[in-house]
Design a protein that fits this description.
Blueprint: E1 13-17, E2 21-25, E3 31-35, E4 42-43, E5 52-53, E6 63-75, E7 78-89, E8 100-103, E9 115-118, E10 123-126, E11 142-143, H1 146-159, H2 167-171, H3 174-181, H4 186-200
Antiparallel strand pairs: 1-6, 1-11, 2-3, 4-5, 6-7, 7-9, 7-10, 8-9
């Protein structure tokens, strides 16, 4: 475990957490906190919205998560601090998918075994899941090595099928890509991910 003193999570840091609720966005761009236990679509929580979201696609249980970006947004209860994060799993069933990236254990990331970053399962998590019962920031497991951090950024670009000679590709950052992803209607986002897996996963 990395020695630290109540530090706010930063990009590339890895935490072992169990987010039982995540923020999801419906087709009409309403973002709310949802329990991930339902195995099917649930109705959007916005009072006048008839759209549905699908929490079942979110990886369940306690896993290491890579922090990518932090942001604040407002809802009826006020401003909420969140983190965009990518889950890690050691299950080899995800091995070889174009939207995953293998990470070997190092003294810096402190992972116990080879793990796979599930780039296509980026989710927005309430900051409270990164805090302990006293409200202080949890200790991180470790942090990504620079080559792994850059490779995950490339996976994010591939996820959106961006052209290499495009101006946007040359100037985009992983933070901006994540912001764009969460502005997409949820059904379109998942359809794009499934199409990439179908085309390149064999």
């Amino acid at each position: 475990m990395v020695e630290q003193k109540n530090q706010k999570p930063r990009k590339g840091w890895i935490y072992f957490i169990n987010p039982q609720k995540v923020y999801l966005t419906c087709k009409s761009n309403h973002t709310y906190l949802y329990d991930i236990e339902p195995l099917d679509y649930v109705e959007c929580q916005h009072s006048s919205c008839t759209q549905k979201v699908n929490p079942s696609r979110v990886l369940r249980g306690a896993h290491p998560y890579i922090v990518l970006t932090s942001k604040k947004f407002s809802d009826e209860s006020g401003y909420i601090e969140t983190f965009n994060a990518i889950p890690l799993t050691s299950q080899e069933t995800y091995k070889g998918l174009p939207t995953t990236y293998p990470i070997n254990p190092t003294t810096k990331n402190c992972l116990e075994k080879q793990s796979f970053a599930l780039v296509h399962q980026i989710c927005t998590i309430d900051a409270n899941y990164f805090k302990n019962k006293e409200g202080k920031w949890k200790e991180r497991i470790g942090q990504l090595d620079k080559p792994d951090r850059e490779a995950i950024g490339e996976r994010l670009k591939n996820l959106f099928d961006l052209e290499q000679d495009d101006w946007f590709t040359k100037n985009v950052s992983s933070e901006l890509l994540i912001e764009i992803m969460y502005k997409m209607p949820e059904n379109q986002r998942h359809l794009a991910i499934e199409k990439l897996i179908d085309e390149f996963g064999s």
